[in-house]
Amino acid sequence: MLRYLNRTTKRKRTTAPKLRQHSYYQQAEPRLGNQYQEDAALLSVMHRRIPTEMVQHNHADLCRFGDRVTPAGDLLHLARDCEYYDPPVLVSNTAWGRREDKIRVSPSWKALGDISAEEGLIALGYERKFGEYSRLFQFIKLYLFTPSSSVYQCPLAMADGAARLIELNMDSVDKRFKSKIKESYDRLTTRDPKQFWTSGQWMTEKRGGSDVSQSETTAELQDDGSYLLNGYKFFTSATTSEITMTLGKIKQNGIVRDKLSTFFVETHKSDGSLNNILVHKLKKKLGTRAVPTAELELVNTPATLIGQADAGVKVISSILNITRIHNATHGLSAMRRIIALARDYSLRRKCFGAGLSDIPLHLRTLADMELELRGTLQLWTDVLILLGRNECGTATDTDNTMLRILTPLLKLYNGKQAISVVSEGLEAIGGTGYMEDSDCPRLLRDVQVGSIWEGTTNILSLDVWRPITKENGLVVFSKEVTDRLKLLDSKFASVASRLGDGLQSLCNADMKLASGPSARSFAFTMTNIYIGLLLAEQANWSKSELDAATTNMWLAKHPVKYVSNSSDYDRMLALGLDSEKKLLYDVHDPRRKPYHL
């Protein structure tokens, strides 16, 4: 009966109601124009600091690249693919249980490496076609590239540092291994994507992060002059790179030396498998998600000593000097990108009957962000010019001391300010800035590593005291700034006076406090003073009222006078740190169980 009814009963057809989208308001999204041509601050500082013929020679290439890093080009799409759709994956074992330890990365990640080689993002610094300005041109391209690359700058930074380390220490390499090291240098600095290599830098272990002296890795000398490394590396960025530099303590005749040495390691064998390296896990990080960062173990891994034995910290510091500038470039470029988006958005968004760009409070917020960008850009440019002079042999003793002072200052200042500026940028864009597909959260996540990677703010604040102590650096810094203040026009007399008073406050500081618990305050004051000088020099050159106003805005917002030990707080510190210890630890029970998520 049911079958009969099913066959004979006519079903009434129902038509689904047509869905129609109403004409709701559609907010115009922020757009990125040419990131080179629209960067007024960069163009201005380039014209002041670089010979005109060199700027003109590179102009067309930088214009082309400025378009390539926008959504109209290919880079940003490759970066998003690496970040969101195809992040690194560790394949520990095959289906049959054989240990494989293979890190699979996106084809887009590899494409970013090819583009890096073609664009000369490392080669530019070593071809030295533009003499002491070669580094600046290299890093201008990196500045454009980085926010559109999902931090491919990480392996590039390590490659750059490794190339410089090899360049400085090639003479020390055992002649039996020189051809191998030379080939690696050529590959790190080539423009040929088929030949291009990147490098890792494996120093951090469980017992020591910033304190590398706690390293447990040993390097046992072999009869052929090579070494076998054994150790556990807790953080290894750019793990898929073809080579790496690492630290270890030489072991000879069963005795392990106290001091570290630097070693060159080829990460893969000729068949493509890892070179006696076990990858235990990929790190789950807040940001830099496209960068393969691993926890791994060296098990009789072949290595070559590079640089003087037992002088590993000094040898590998040449990498740190380069990677810290890369780190600062990452933060600076993230500030530039978020400001570009927030500024364009302010011209497209209306709120409370007015455009965002016409609301004074919003305008001041964006101007404060731009002020940080322009100040840091001046310091970044200055450091790169000093680096170029150092590498080309044209630097004076003063230049070299200033480079050693300013590099950690650039990194520590930028590391903190970039986080603040990018976070403010998300807020300026509003709720959509918090959405993953706006690309803004990626910028914020990635920039967070800047204050940690290659030295925390505290470590760098203390590092500044190395040249101050060993090279009379504070006297050199003070004289350099004072001499340059005298060259400013009379209209900057009040600026010179304020910066001069700030210098005097540094020189009058209690050095025990300034190099200890107050080291951060001391370092930031030095930075504020020097950026104030650079902004004043820019305004003095350009004769621009805007540049003069920028200098005054900087001085109004940033303290250039170090608070000496006459303050109540420093007086308390002079009596000891008991009050701070009680503030932090009076209710802390070290027997508490570990906190697990």
Q: Can you describe what's shown?
A:
- The chain has 597 residues and is of the alpha+beta class.
- Helices cover 52% and strands 12% of the residues.
- The chain has 22 helices and eleven strands.
- The strands form three sheets. Strands 4-5-9-7-6 form a five-stranded mixed barrel.
- β10 and β11 (354-355) form a beta hairpin.
- α11 packs antiparallel against α12.
- The chain is globular, with a radius of gyration of 27 Å.
What is the topology?
Elements: H1 2-8, H2 40-49, H3 52-68, H4 75-85, E1 89-93, E2 99-104, H5 107-118, H6 123-127, H7 134-145, H8 153-169, H9 178-188, E3 199-202, E4 218-221, E5 227-236, E6 243-252, E7 255-266, E8 277-282, E9 294-305, H10 312-348, E10 350-351, E11 354-355, H11 360-392, H12 397-429, H13 440-447, H14 457-463, H15 465-470, H16 473-485, H17 493-507, H18 511-514, H19 519-542, H20 545-557, H21 568-574, H22 578-585
Parallel strand pairs: 3-6, 4-6
Antiparallel strand pairs: 1-2, 4-5, 5-9, 6-7, 7-9, 8-9, 10-11
Query: Count the helices. How many?
Result: 22
Query: For the terminal residues, how far apart are their CA atoms?
Result: 62 Å
What sort of overall outline do the alpha carbons produce when their principal axes are compared? globular
Give the amount of beta strand, in percent. Answer: 5-15%
- Unreliable stretches (pLDDT < 50, length at least 5) are 1-5
Biggest β-sheet: strands ordered side by side in the sheet: 4-5-9-7-6
Based on secondary structure, the structural category is alpha+beta
